[in-house]
Predict the structure of YlxR family protein.
Amino acid sequence: MKKKKIPLRKCVACNEQKTKKELIRVVKTKENEFFVDFTGKANGRGAYICPKIECFNIAFKKDSFSRSFHVKVSDEIYEKLKKELTDYEK
């Protein structure tokens, strides 16, 4: 019997490959809305990040989400995403 392939994704901050379930997906919709997708199934372009605030701080310094989404991500959006991630950690 074949083994089922486990999908791997790379964190935009630390570049570690982990299973899809270990990472959190950040989504950009066609309307340029950004939000954290805890289900992993929302429509839009996704980028993955570890559920640690350290990784988020690295992504903010490197402006990793701007590179992933091919559009400038403002500081307000980073603050909104940071709040959603810190609420998730609790």
